[in-house]
Every structure is written in structure tokens, then in C-alpha cells.
Amino acid sequence: MADILIRSVVKSYGRTKVVHGIDLDILHGDFVVILGPSGCGKSTLLRMIAGLEEIDAGEIAIAGRVVNELEPRERGCAMVFQNYALYPHMSVAENIGYSLKIMGIRKVERLERVTAVARIVGLEEFLDRRPAQLSGGQRQRVAMARAMIKEPQVFLFDEPLSNLDAKLRVQMRIEIRRLHRRLGGTSVFVTHDQVEAMTLADKLVVMNAGRIEQVGTPKEVYHRPASLFVAGFIGSPPMNIMKVGSATPGLARLASGATLQMPWLDTVPESSLRLGIRPEDIELVAPGTPGAMEMPVEFVEELGAGHLVHGEFEGAEFVVALPGAIEVVAGGRLHMCFPTEALHMFDAVSGLRLDGGEKASGLSSGAVREFA
Amino acid sequence: MSGKRVTFKNLWLAILLILPQLFLVFTFFYWPAGEALYWAFTLEPPFGGEQQWVGWQNFETVFADPLYWNSVKRSLLFAFSSTALAMGIGLLLASFVDRQLAGYKVYRFIYFWPYAVAAPAVGLAFRFIFAPDAGFVSAINVWFPGLWNPALDGFDAMVLIVLANAWSMVAYNFIFFLAGLQSIPRSLVEAGAMDGAGAVRRMRDLQLPLIAPTFFFLIVINITDSFVNSFGIVDITTGGGPARATDLMVFKIYSDGFKGKDYSLAAAQSLVLMLMVCALTFIQFRFVERRVHYS
Ligand SMILES: Nc1ncnc2c1ncn2[C@@H]1O[C@H](COP(=O)(O)OP(=O)(O)OP(=O)(O)O)[C@@H](O)[C@H]1O
Ligand SMILES: [Mg+2]
Predict the structure, then answer these.
(1) Which residues contact B166 (CB under 8 A, 6 or more apart)?
(2) In angstroms, what separates the C-alpha of A89 from chain B's closest C-alpha?
(3) Bridge partner list, A297
């Protein structure tokens, strides 16, 4: 069983600490995606699992064996690199079969296995070509095949799709997922593309500045972001964040004076608070509805299936996502209300989420959306 | 037209600017080379007078001389062993530095110094270090009396000049190997590690093939260098001895010409050496031109 257990792992380059004590359990068969902004240490963490980077403190165990001191080849991992890292002087077949050659497997068997793997990724006709004679997508497949052929317990991917065009990326995403199911190993996939992360992951790990912000299913991370960072990072457009003027159990008052019912808010800390709501969770109401809030419309972004209405609310930029059927024009006014279950409360100092525990999902699909 | 090329509107200015360089090249290269060509095909009469045209006679004398073939053999032995040694050590050092890059710019600088040391100075240093009675290496003779004596033992003498020449070339090789290794994307070597290849295997299967152009370039440079620049080392350390064990081609030209006073024979020999170096240079250009590019 290829579980990967990561215990308080720390990494510094010179005097800069880039990974600050990470704990993470990756269970056998999981497809784990590590998501985070550029420079947050995703690759570094992945490379420490692979054995390409030394572990300064803490421990990584793969399949019950601490691997800190083991060479990459002793860890049973295969890796797909962002730029594919194919050997330019070898043919596709030699690239794929290189690890078998090192294991000392005879040529006949090697060729057999290379052909079998090439068939899976659809590269049979290209076995004699050099990497330079392949398209980006084909190179990507060679890189995948090269990783697959060892039948590793653990697959590591470092942004393997970021050099592909949008269409190919979607296609490869599906193939990677299919491959994972077929091989039944453990996969760790690093990306900074949240759509990729959401669609691929069984378990999503959101990282920021060398720390883990949240671990959960894509749904959990989206609907119950554990921190202000996750709330702002996941979702496109990002969640609207408002300053809370004052709060008492069950009630929050915005800086402008609008009050919001929050029955699940039982304890209120001393520190200042932030309230979040996703653009797509906001409902429109008729003008004059009690509790309705008003926002002047600055401009509208057309998306085809819907549009994004930009304006200023509570002294900050604010975005409302509306279905295409509703007509909005710049210069108009939007009357809206925030469904209680769609509100997210955060401690502004620690950045952590505050709530009683019930889910803030289940949008009221039947809600009246009107434009005034 | 190439946009990068500087073009002079004023032709006379251009000529004026390259004139000093042309003058130097002509005076110190073409003129002596022409002179050598002349000497090689003529003989000076024993009792004075005009030089006489003798055709290939000087070359026939040279090629019939077993001492000449001895010097060719010694030169090849010297060239190949010092090239192998200098390139091997250069590659080893470069691969160490390539893996741990902290401060490599300083290394680059420091490692280059030996190349800048003139051959006679290298020879002098090695003569002292390897002196059988007083040098650092004399300790060997304390434990094993008579084991090391380049003044008596031809093999020891050859080892001495090979070491000295290799030492001065290691720096050059190191720089080129390091630059070559650094041009290989790091992820490629890492992919090799993930595929299970150890450091030696990665060097052999991945890094060396990828720096093959550099490798061939260095082979030619090292061999050429050992043919031409070895004079200073031989002259200072062994003087061609003992018993002509280190009588390299370039040194034999000097001793035949300036000690034996036979300019014609020396000129014929230097012409042969020049042709060999030209051939090597030609090979090198072929390789550099056909430099394999992967992308
Ligand atoms: N070899 C290195 N030497 C010094 N600093 C490094 C080195 N490698 C990475 N870093 C630093 O460590 C931090 C984390 O790097 P890492 O490559 O893990 O980021 P990442 O999350 O993968 O980002 P990206 O999405 O851009 O690939 C960055 O701030 C980076 O500058
Ligand atoms: Mg990265």
C-alpha cells in the first residue's frame, strides 16, 4: 500500500524558509492535487517526495518506509515534469524504455513493454521519432508513458499540462484521470490552475507561502473555505470580502450599517471580522424589499452563459454573477440580498473561518431573481 | 545583409585599423612559415654559396631516420595520455561543480589560472615538485628507494611531462565541460535520476551525449596543444631525455635545428608537424560546424 505520510517537513534555501512544517496524509489510491499560487512551495514539496530535494527537517514515509535518506530510484516514484524533460538524443522508444534498460531488462522484453505502454497513450506510430519531431501533446504523452512503464506505486506530476493549449489540456486531464483509475496507484498532482485542481482531485490540498491552508474534497474547499486565503483563491471570480463593523451572536452589521442574520454565529471573537459571499450566491430582489442592499453598476462583463456585474459595495470592489437572462446595464443599480447559508465569516487577524459547522451550500435555486 | 555586422563606410579607415594586426600575423606567422617552406626544400652547400633546390630529399632523410619515428611515437603517446588525463580530470571537476553550484563563478575564475601559466613556468614548477631528491615526491624514494627518477628512467620522465601538461590543460577543459554541463536542463538529469540512473550512468547516457560537440572540440584542442605547446615543459624538465624518451616532435625540431644546426631537416619536420596540426584543425572545424543541436 503506497501511502505517503508527510510529517512536519521543513525546507529552506539558504536562509529563506520555503516550506514551513507540512503535515499531510496521502492514502493509497488517492488522487491528491496540490494547489497554490506561484512560489508557494508546491514543487518543492513534490520534489522532496521524489527525492530530488533534500528534506531539512521532518519525515516523509512512502509505503511505510521513511525515505528521507533514500535515493530517488529507491523510492518507487515516477515523475512527469512540466517541460517533460525528454532525452533529446534518444528516440521515443528509448525514452520510454530507459528505466527498463537501467534495470537490466533484455531488449526483447523491453521492446514488448514499451510497445504496450505506447499503445495505451496512443504513441505506437511515433516510437522511432526524436522528441524534437513531436508536437507538445505527443511529448506530453511520451513523458506519461515514461513514467508509467515502471508501474510505480506513486505518480508525481509537476504541472504537466501547463504547456498545452486549452483544448488539449482538457483532453489530457481526462486521460490522466483515466490512467490513475487503471493503474490504481497513488497520484500527487501539482498545479496552480484551479479548474484543473477541482476536476482532478479526490483530495485537494491548498497551499500558501509554504503552509497548507486547507485539505478537503474540491466541494468542501469550495463551499467551506477554511481561511480568507482559500476563499479568495478558489473560485473565479473570487469571493467578495466585506469588512464587518460589529457582530453579536446571530447578527453581523456591515460597516455601512446593513445587518445580516447569521443564526449559526454563536460566539463572536474580539478581533475584527470579514464576511464573504461568492458572486454566484448573491440573489437579486425587488427594490424596497426589507433588508435589500443596493449597489451601483460600474460595468458588466459578458460571459455568454451569464455575466459578471462589477460595482463598489461597502467601500470595496464587488462582483455579482448573474445568469444571462437578466439584463443589466452600466450605470444602473442592483438590489440584492445575501442568503444566510451562503455567507462565510472569517477572523481578519488569523484569517481562519468561524462557524458553527453546518454547510453553507445548497443555493436556493427557486429564489426569485429580479432586476430592478 | 547581416544586421549585426558593423560596416565601415570608409574603406581606408578599415584598412588602417586592420593593418597592425595583419603586419603582426605576417611577420610572425606567414613570413617564418614561408621561410620554413623554403628551407625544407633546399640545402645549404657545405662550403657556402647559394642554397640549392633538393626537392623531397630532406623529407626522405627525415622519414628514413628511426630517431624521427621515435619522436613521433613519443609525441603520440604524450598527446593521448595527457589529453585523456586532462579531459578526465576536467570532466570530473566540472561534474562536481555542476552538481553543487554555490560560488561556481569564483571556481571558474580560479580554475582558469593554470591555463594562463606559461609552459616553461609549469615545467619549472613540476621540475621542483617532482625532483627525485628534494621535491615533494621525493618521499616516494624514501619508502621505495629508486622508484622515482625522471632523470634516469624514461617512463618516469614521460609521466612527469604528461602530468605537467595535463595540469595546465585541466583548467581549460574544466571551463568548457562546466559550461556544457550547465547548458543541459536540470530537469533532464533529474528525469534520469527518477528513471533509476546513478550519477555515473547519467553522465554516460545523458550528459556526455548531450555535450558531445564540446567533447570533440576539447579532444582536438588538447591534442593540438600537446603537439605545439609542450616545448616549454620538455625543455625545462627533461630536455628530451633520458635516452630520447621524451624527445617529442616539437622538441626534436628545436634540437635538430638550433643545436644540430641543420635548418633544412628541422624545417622539413616542422612542415610535417604543421600539416598534422592543420589536419586536426580541419577535423575540429568539421565537428564544430556540424555541431549536433537538439531542442
Ligand atoms: N534552488 C532554489 N534556490 C533558492 N530558492 C529556490 C530554489 N527553488 C525554489 N526556490 C524558492 O522556493 C520557493 C518555492 O518554490 P517552488 O518551486 O516550490 O514554487 P511553486 O509553488 O512550485 O511555484 P510555481 O507554481 O511557480 O511552480 C520560491 O519562492 C522559490 O523562489
Ligand atoms: Mg512549480
Answers:
(1) B82, B85, B86, B89
(2) 7
(3) A311
Residues A198 and A276 in one domain: no
| Cβ within 8 Å, pair B196-A102 | yes
In a domain, A267, yes or no: yes
Q: Are A72 and A156 in contact (CB under 8 A)?
A: no
Burial of A5 (C-beta count, 10 Å sphere; 0-12/13-18/19+): middle
Residue-number span of the structural domain to which A201 is assigned: 1-76+157-171+185-223
Give backbone dihedrals phi and psi of A101, rounded to 5 degrees, phi first: -60, -40
The upper half-sphere exposure of residue A44, i.e. CA atoms within 13 Å in the direction of its Cβ, equals 24
Using CA coordinates, name the residue in chain B closest to A47: B190
Q: Which residues surround ligand 1 with Cβ inside 6 Å?
A: A 13, 18, 36, 38-44, 192
CATH number of the structural domain spanning residue A257: 2.40.50.140
Pick the residue from chain A with its C-alpha nearest to B206: A87
- B205 contact A CB<8A: yes
Measuring from atom 28 of ligand 1, which residue has the nearest CA? A39
Mutation pick from A75, A77, A81, A144 vs chain B, by most beta carbons of B within 10 Å, is: A81
Q: What cell was used for A211?
A: 503552509
Query: How far apart, in whole angstroms, are the C-alpha atoms of residue B170 and residue B114?
Result: 8
Clarify whether residues A251 and A203 are in a common domain.
Answer: no
**A150 located within any domain:** no
Where are the extended beta strands (E) located within B187-283? none
Q: What is the pLDDT of residues B121-168, one digit of tens each?
A: 777 777 777 776 777 777 777 777 767 777 777 788 888 889 888 888
For residues A291 and A201, state if they share a domain: no
The CATH number of whichever domain residue A66 belongs to comes to 3.40.50.300
| Phi (first) and psi of residue A299, to 5 degrees | -155, 165
Inter-chain touch A99–B201, beta carbons under 8 Å:
no
C-alpha–C-alpha distance, residues B292 and A130, integer Å: 13
Domain count, chain A: 2
Set out the domains of chain B in order of their start, with CATH numbers: 64-291 (1.10.3720.10)
User: Which is it for strands A57-62 and A293-302: parallel, antiparallel or unpaired?
Assistant: unpaired
Distance between CA atoms of residues B211 and B220, nearest Å: 15
Structure ipTM: 0.80
Q: Kindly report the number of other CB atoms within 10 A of residue B253's CB atom.
A: 22
Mean pLDDT per 10-residue segment, chain A (372 residues): 88 90 91 93 93 91 89 89 91 93 91 90 89 89 90 90 84 87 88 90 93 92 92 90 85 83 77 89 87 88 88 89 84 88 88 63 32 32
Q: Do B193 and A52 touch (CB under 8 A)?
A: yes
Nearest residue to B223 via CA among B282, B268, B137 = B282
Give the amino acid at A247. Answer: A
Which H or E element spans position B93?
A: helix B66-99
Cis peptide before A323 (omega within 30 of 0): no
Instruction: Work out the widest C-alpha separation in chain B, in whole angstroms.
Output: 79
Q: In sequence order, which residues have a C-beta less than 8 Å from that of residue B39 and are 6 or more positions away? A: B263, B264, B266, B267, B268
